[in-house]
Amino acid sequence: MSTPDDGVLTKAFAARYGTRPTHLSRAPGRVNLIGEHTDYNDLPVLPMALQREVRMALRPRDDGLVRLANESAEFEPVEFEIQPGIPRSAPGHWGNYVKAPADHLAAHFGIRRGFDGVLVSDLPVASGLSSSSALVNTIGLALARLNEVEAGPLELAALMADAERYTGTRGGGMDQAISMGARAGHAARIDFAPLRMSHVPVPAEWRFVVADTGVRAEKSGAAQRAYNTRREECERALRIVGETLVGRGELPTPPASYPALLAALGFDGALAAGRDALDTHLLKRFRHVVTEARRVESAVDMLAGGDLTGMGELMDASHESLRTDYEVSSPELDEMVTLAREGGAVGARLTGAGFGGCAVALAPAGAVEEVVTALRERYWAARSARDASADRVFVAAPSEGASYRALSS
Predict the structure, then answer these.
(1) Which fold does the domain 221-396 belong to in CATH?
(2) Which of 19, 270, 313, 369, by CA, is between 20 and 30 Å from 212?
(3) pLDDT of residue 392
């Protein structure tokens, strides 16, 4: 799968609207290397942007109408008027990710100018690679620029994270931030409340292999409910731990956030407090969040120091925590992770929210072909009803964040 170049996209636009587009807006997907389900707990993450992206050719309008066609036949055209309180499409409809940034920017900045657009993507849908947030960023960036909203990449990313909650998912801000603010050749440690980003070079000899299980992890329906439930469980666990600590006189007031708890007690102290205060179910959720935050801290050091083996061990530990404590893995993800390791990866884990989607494996450059072959032949070739093509397993390239530019006439 490849994203059409500007000329192909321009022709598609002209065929639909009878004129040429004037601008191109684009935003990449991402693969999260480590730090899963920590962003909505205001704890750090370590993702990088992908070479796969959403691209949109557009022409600004003089009115508030948005007309957008998707080059994929799976998605029908979307048309609506920009205003605060834009009526939602049916749950799970792709148009909600188009309406979300328009609704949010209209409410907060009074934008009134729409566009005609044609959109294409080479990001697999519902795969844990942030196709939905890349779409939100692509639309939001275009609307901000053509309506002269002054906002830098991280400010706009924070706006888009808020905007995406229009769709019903109570996400964090990782996906929007890395898609907006990534630097080519780098991963990024992202911290929250307030949003900050520190770029970390990816060692030239490291290869991150992304492998799609083919099980869609839709951000609607059961997966959305499970995701939102995990967030509610984390909030409840923090509240119980805080109240217990105050009741014992160990803290004067309950910590308002996980970072505040860790600042007061440290990782080991927080884990001990969780063991004392929580039942088994909430303790598992709490333990994943705290240990995963510690793994992010260590992973930044491993990446900066070029410690391939150490990074692989952290990825393995992350997957085990996501599988047993957070319970968001699946048989297919577990199989993909096992096959990657057997093929020569130094570590592997699910990436994204889980419940299906993709795994990511780390390998030295000299072993990457064996890892890719193992995943294609031992996972996908055994599923003959589905295509074991290069689209399903690929080597991720740490890529540049979103951009908006004028097209040449």
Answers:
(1) Alpha-Beta Plaits (3.30.70)
(2) 313
(3) 87
Tell me, what's the pLDDT at 62?
Answer: 96
- Residue 1: the pLDDT is 46
- Tell me the C-alpha distance between 345 and 376, whole Å: 14
d(CA 200, CA 41): 22
CB count within 10 Å of CB 344 equals 18
Query: 57 near 67, Cβ under 8 Å?
Result: no
Tens digits of residue pLDDT in 327-338: 999 999 999 999
DSSP, collapsed to helix, strand or coil, labels residue 166 as: helix
Which residue is listed with tokens 């995990």?
Answer: 230
CATH of region 6-203+398-406: 3.30.230.10
Ranges of each domain in the chain: 6-203+398-406, 221-396
Residues 6+ apart with CB under 8 A from 154: 177, 180, 181, 195, 196, 197
Q: How far is 162 from 149, CA to CA, in rounded Å?
A: 16
Q: Decide if 116 is catalytic.
A: no
Give CA separation, 179 vs 26, 127, 318, in Å: 10, 16, 23
Helix axes 308-324, 280-305, angle to 10 degrees: 160
The identity of residue 117, as a single letter, is: G
Cis peptide before 124 (omega within 30 of 0): no
pLDDT tens digits, 29-80: 999 999 999 999 999 999 999 999 999 999 999 999 999 999 988 899 999 9
| 195 close to 172: Cβ distance less than 8 angstroms | no
pLDDT value of position 37: 96
Catalytic residue chosen out of the listed positions 175, 191, 316, 391:
175
Per residue, what are the HEC states of 23-40? EEEEEEEEEEEECCCCHH
Residues in the chain with pLDDT values less than 50: 1-2, 385
Domains 6-203+398-406 and 221-396 share a fold: no
CA distances from residue 374 to 153, 341, 379, 395 in whole angstroms, order as listed: 38, 9, 7, 13
Structure confidence at residue 218 (pLDDT): 64
pLDDT of residue 205: 97
Quick count: other Cβ atoms within 10 Å of Cβ 180?
30
